[in-house]
Amino acid sequence: MERRISYADIAVAAGVDKSTVSLALSGHPRIPETTRARIREVAKRLGYAPDPALASLAAQRWQGRRDHKGLVLAFVCDDIRAAEPELKAYLAGVRRQAKLLGYGVEVFSLADYPSVAALLRVVEQRGLRGMVIGQSRRDLPAELLAAGEPPRVHCGFLRDVACDTVRPDLAAAVSLAWRRLGGGGRRVVIGLEVERGLHSDHAILGAARALAEAEGRAGPRLVVGWLDRDEEEWLARLAKAAERADALVVLNGKQRERVRRAKVWPAGAVVAPLHLLAGEKAPGVDLRLEEVGRVAVNLLELKMRRVPLATAAFRQTLEVEPRWAEAAG
To answer: What DSSP assignment string belongs to 97-157?
Structure first.
């Protein structure tokens, strides 16, 4: 891949700072016309070729405008009409960061197109600058995730995909729950009822198992069940574990409610999910899904600017650190 001439290259050749190059090439009045002309001449001699859309975006930022003037990103998902709360949280974060950076966002549902190729043709015809691909419970088509134009970033945690990805740090979520609940000699049970086909469930299970083994007898007890098997067996094992425990960590709010309804855990004991959704009034881990969407837009902009580490030959996975919430929402 031929390397693009950067502001840094021009700055070295012209003997000025990189910020001066940026201001000069965007026509900022702070830079004298003689300096602007010299820098433009150096840029031309080096073969600098600006991205017209990104140059327009830079000009908008200097002028303090927030309208995107055709600079639009695509948010692609299975079907936005049937979107789960997690996907909507990612989309909210994508929209917030895109607006901050001067981009618009258009939402595309795969369900509305006969093929991925048809969707990509529409994205190309509309001149959209980049794609954020939302999480899916199904295996996403390989051609959607392939490196190419426009640049694309996957945003989510339900599947492990061959694409630049931004997702919550699930191992950190397990560790955070243990740190918050396991202090002062408190006995913690991590009770996971997991789906066999979900990468995120297996990532959490692996983190919980590693934590329990590392901490030894002082660490949490791990009780694992599978969603495609008898739920009553899992609940019975939790009830037995509750006899000598002070807190229970489960996957999400749905599992928390099942445990409450089944009355297998003491009424006053803490039952904390590893994944709280907005509005859930319970202690637990906030995976900061909107922040994941915002970071995805930042990574996508790096790829659109052809930053060296954001090339097709380098796959990146960025993880957003979770936080503890006493009462989310």
So the answer is: HHHHHT-EEEEEEGGGSSSHHHHHHHHHHTT--EEEEEP-SSPPPHHHHSS-SS-EEEE-S
The range of the structural domain enclosing residue 300 comes to 72-168+290-321
Q: Where are the beta strands (DSSP E) in 200-316?
A: 221-226, 247-250, 270-273, 284-286
Would you say residue 300 lies in a domain? yes
Q: Are residues 235 and 257 in the same domain?
A: yes
Q: How far is residue 14's CA from residue 259's CA, in Å, rounded to a whole number?
A: 67
Same-domain pairing of 161 and 195: no
Cα–Cα distances in angstroms (integers) from residue 147 to residues 136, 144, 153, 163, 244, in the given order: 19, 9, 9, 7, 51
Domains of the chain: total: 3
What is the DSSP-derived secondary structure letter of residue 309?
Answer: G
Q: Within 13 Å, how many C-alpha atoms sit on residue 232's CB side?
A: 0
CATH number of the CATH domain containing 179: 3.40.50.2300
Total-model pTM: 0.77
Q: Does residue 25 form part of some domain?
A: yes
Local confidence pLDDT in tens for the 329 residues of the chain: 456 688 888 999 999 988 888 888 877 777 888 898 999 899 989 888 765 555 555 555 544 444 545 588 999 999 998 889 999 999 999 999 999 988 999 999 999 999 999 999 999 888 888 999 999 888 888 889 888 888 899 999 988 888 899 999 999 999 999 999 987 778 899 999 998 888 899 999 999 999 989 887 778 889 999 887 777 888 988 888 888 788 999 999 989 988 888 888 887 788 999 999 878 878 899 999 999 999 999 999 888 876 655 555 678 899 999 999 986 54
Amino acid at 317: T
Say whether both 281 and 298 belong to one domain.
no
- CA Rg value for the chain: 24
Residue 97 lies in a domain: yes
Residues 210 and 113 in one domain: no
Examine residue 148 and state whether it is found in any structural domain, yes or no: yes
